[in-house]
Specification:
By secondary structure, this protein is an alpha+beta fold. 39% of the residues lie in helices and 27% in strands. The protein has an 11-stranded mixed beta sheet, with helices on both faces. The longest helix is centred in the middle third of the chain and has 19 residues. It is globular.
């Protein structure tokens, strides 16, 4: 693996979820994020040889997704190889796909824009684009000085209402709604389940509005990532999922982002990041108003096997 990794090292850097934070050196991100992941999953990698070139496909079966959607679901995390030949990589990908024998299997990958050769090969092999994500981030949190708003931490008692909000505030451009393998109803229910599980502990915190004159028909979840802080040398946290009722809580998206920024800063974060679809212009306009800026772009590609 070492030789293949060294050839792909510069591109693999962009798979780090923190690649846009310059205070975390590329060497630290390689040694703290990329290499440990490759080594941990090496025994699951599928090795394919084409024209004398070795390829390692790091793929994993996702048991929870498989059970929830009743579709054998695999995530392709990385592909290692030592050449720049799209045709050879396409052939290797096609042979790799033949090793997955589960009927109706579904594969997806989140891939940085910088990995252009692999993107082309996956396209040649029948993978389709289902989502493009923009990641925004903010440092200099000590300078954050926006007006404050009344919020509270949501609890499992809020589940029924917030699950309803998640279903109703549909985003047609996220992977689950954009990929035709999932029905609209199933995609809606998945997001409702996601917030339900977030309230049970999957998220570190869920904020909602706390105004006497309005229902709490909005939420924003976040994860602290404190287990990453020591090895990165910098405390970094992430805002994850949000939904705001356009009929009862209009204007509350900016307020939630503002209050979550304060909350994560007060919890100890020096950097905050989050992502959204490239079509979500209103969202990244709001982020930019609050001092967030573009960090990186990734694509989600998928393929369903017959």
């Amino acid at each position: 693996m070492e030789e293949l990794y060294l050839h792909r090292k510069d591109t693999l850097f962009f798979y780090s979820p923190f690649n846009f934070i310059r205070e975390i050196s590329p060497a630290v991100q390689q040694e703290a994020i990329i290499l440990p992941e490759l080594k941990k999953k090496l025994d699951q990698a599928v090795e394919i040889h084409v024209k004398g070139s070795a390829h390692l496909f790091f793929v994993e079966l996702l048991p929870w997704d498989t059970a929830y959607f009743n579709i054998p679901t695999y995530k392709l995390n990385h592909v290692l190889y030592k050449h720049h030949d799209v045709a050879v990589l396409t052939e290797a990908t096609n042979r790799f796909l033949q090793t997955i024998t589960a009927a109706g299997a579904y594969l997806f990958i989140e891939i940085p824009s910088e990995d252009i050769v692999l993107i082309q090969a996956l396209g040649n092999a029948g993978f389709k684009l289902v989502e493009t994500r923009l990641t925004y981030y903010r440092g200099s949190l000590h300078d954050f000085n926006e007006p404050r708003y009344p919020v509270r931490e949501a609890t499992p008692a809020d589940s029924t209402n917030l699950m309803r909000v998640a279903r109703e505030m549909r985003n047609d451009y996220d992977r689950f709604h954009a990929d035709p393998i999932f029905s609209t109803e199933k995609a809606d229910e998945f997001l409702a389940t996601y917030i339900e599980q977030s309230l049970k502990g999957f998220a570190d915190v869920v904020l909602t509005s706390n105004e006497d004159t309005l229902p709490s028909d909005c939420f924003l979840t976040a994860r602290y990532f404190k287990n990453e802080w020591e090895k990165l040398g910098i405390p970094v946290s992430k805002m994850v999922l949000s939904a705001v009722s356009s009929s009862t809580n209009k204007g509350w998206y900016k307020k939630l982002i503002t209050e979550m920024t304060y909350h994560l800063r007060d919890t100890g974060a020096s950097y905050i990041f989050m992502n959204t679809q490239s079509t979500n212009r209103a969202v990244f306009y709001t982020w930019e108003q609050l001092g967030y800026r573009l960090g990186c772009t990734t694509h989600l590609l998928s393929k369903t096997l017959s």
